[in-house]
């Protein structure tokens, strides 16, 4: 998996072929998404877990990265996708993060590049 911060896209790659590509929201200027190579260490579903049936800030799913405190997750603010809005995490539309989760497992390599 490759996250291209300049394009604000996450691409699921097999070999040299892009299988799927999704728009993402990334870190703000002061809380930038960290560049590097990581792995997915966990997956935590967040069904409508807030009082009143509202989505959590992590949307419907969190996939934690090997860099503690950072992850790929859904959002309760879909208008934030494509923008510099997070505290360093990678935000996706809920349907996209759920789709991605079906194609990747714990240990999947995640390359985040500028």
From TrEMBL:
Keywords, alphabetical: Acyltransferase, Cell shape, Cell wall biogenesis/degradation, Glycosyltransferase, Hydrolase, Peptidoglycan synthesis, Transferase
EC supergroup of this enzyme: transferase
Pfam families per record: YkuD
TM helices/strands, residue ranges: none
Source organism, top-level taxon: Bacteria
UniProt-recorded Gene Ontology molecular function terms: acyltransferase activity
Documented EC number(s): 2.3.2.-
Domain L,D-TPase catalytic: 1-113
Catalytic site: 73 (proton donor/acceptor), 89 (nucleophile)
Pathway, per record: Cell wall biogenesis; peptidoglycan biosynthesis
Family, similarity comment: Belongs to the YkuD family.
PANTHER family: L,D-TRANSPEPTIDASE, L,D-TRANSPEPTIDASE ERFK_SRFK-RELATED
Protein name: L,D-transpeptidase
Organism: Salinithrix halophila
